[in-house]
Inverse folding.
């Protein structure tokens, strides 16, 4: 039985990569002073209709929306920023005008089915409220770049400025004029009037777009000097980047600096973001500058290479009928004190190693009526690194036998030596 079109089950190695990425992100962004917010997956539709615009592609074609039983229109969130802004205005702004937030979770868009595009996809995002300096733009790009470097993902960064309500309309009309007599794809034909900027990132019209006017020639003085300072600060941070005047974000609320991160593997960005100084006010909050980014989890997971050491992990207890009672005593004694056992500490290297694996993964056979041999086979098939064997011999000697399934050697140890 298949899953809903555009969705997929996450399991096995891919689930491990999701876990690794989410754990790393949580630790990394917390250390940098970001606080996690878990907003609901469903929101009232105005949150996105207002911010993305009723005529935007997402709102018109891609939002999962339905009328709730009380007649209110509810949507599955198509992106994280608008929800974070809604939360910031409602719960944070009055007490703390400056806030650094991050979120991790699924988003939903009814995209045309194609490889690498999901209707339920996941994002890790950061948002900074109350920061207007060019240093903050450079900072957020720097930490995003370092995020990918830390997890071993080769990438390049492209930056641009999409101007402000003073200068962008001038650019829009210059674009309209330029595209006037040109032949464009069906979608862009419609974009010509409504949103000519979006034509710039069309994959079908690359040839036509080549000679289009450059937005950087149209920036007002304020936008121009802000952008120049952002570029200077990026150099101070040691961030390598390229300026790409064709970058316009798919979401219309961006102002000023925008950026995208690309890997060598896909043409689509693996992360993107920018400044959205007008969005908080537009959604009903006090005027507050803000900026942020979102990382595509599925695309990043595709690029992750975890070390094979992760494969064989943990300790599994096997026993014979004579050893059963002691095996269960050992198991419960470890489980009740799991939070007291720390990895790597202990008198001998064996103790340290076993503890290290207990912390990572720990289980017992619940098929004790099966032969010891078949319990060991099970542990092997589940990729456990160590097994503990408790049988007649071990009971008589008052020890537990530990076998390393990776390096095929075994040793005996007393339970008390291992635990306390
Ligand atoms: Zn401007
Ligand atoms: Zn097009």
């Amino acid at each position: 039985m298949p899953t809903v079109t555009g969705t997929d089950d996450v399991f096995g190695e891919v689930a491990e990569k999701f876990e690794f990425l989410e754990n790393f992100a949580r630790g990394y962004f917390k250390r940098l002073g970001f606080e996690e917010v878990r907003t609901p997956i469903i929101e009232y539709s105005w949150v996105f209709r207002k911010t993305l615009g009723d005529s935007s592609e997402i709102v018109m074609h891609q939002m999962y929306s339905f009328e709730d039983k009380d007649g209110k229109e509810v949507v599955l969130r198509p992106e994280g920023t608008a929800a974070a802004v809604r939360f910031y205005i409602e719960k944070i702004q009055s007490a703390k005008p400056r806030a650094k937030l991050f979120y991790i979770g699924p988003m939903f868009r009814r995209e045309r089915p194609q490889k690498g595009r999901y209707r339920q996809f996941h994002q890790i995002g950061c948002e900074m409220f109350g920061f207007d300096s060019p240093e903050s733009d450079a900072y957020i790009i720097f930490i995003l770049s370092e995020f990918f470097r830390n997890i071993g993902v080769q990438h390049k960064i492209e930056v641009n400025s999409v101007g402000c309500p003073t200068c962008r309309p001038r650019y829009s009309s210059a674009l309209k004029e330029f595209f006037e007599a040109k032949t464009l794809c069906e979608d862009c034909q419609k974009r010509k009037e409504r949103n000519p900027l979006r034509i710039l990132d069309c994959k079908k019209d690359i040839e036509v777009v080549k000679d289009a006017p450059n937005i950087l020639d149209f920036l007002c003085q304020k936008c121009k000097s802000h952008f120049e300072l952002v570029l200077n600060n990026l150099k101070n941070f040691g961030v390598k980047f390229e300026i790409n005047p064709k970058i316009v974000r798919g979401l219309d609320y961006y102002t000023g600096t925008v950026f995208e991160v690309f890997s060598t593997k896909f043409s689509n960005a693996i992360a993107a973001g920018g400044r959205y100084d007008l969005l908080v006010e537009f959604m009903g909050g006090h005027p507050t500058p803000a900026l942020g980014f979102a990382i595509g989890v599925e695309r990043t997971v595709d690029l992750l290479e975890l070390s094979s050491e992760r494969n064989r992990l943990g300790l599994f207890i096997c026993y014979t009928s004579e050893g059963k009672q002691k095996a269960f005593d050992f198991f419960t004694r470890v489980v009740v004190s799991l939070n007291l056992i720390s990895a790597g500490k202990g008198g001998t290297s064996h103790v340290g190693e076993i503890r290290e694996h207990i912390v990572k993964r720990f289980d017992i056979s619940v098929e004790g009526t099966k032969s010891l041999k078949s319990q060991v086979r099970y542990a092997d098939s589940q990729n456990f690194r160590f097994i503990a064997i408790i049988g007649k011999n071990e009971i008589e000697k008052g020890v537990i036998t530990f076998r390393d399934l990776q390096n095929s050697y075994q040793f005996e140890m007393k339970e008390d030596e291992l635990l306390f």
User: Anything to note?
Assistant: Residues 163-164, 166-167, 219-220, 222-223 surround zinc ion (ligand 1) (CB under 6 Å). The first helix runs from residue 12 to 31.
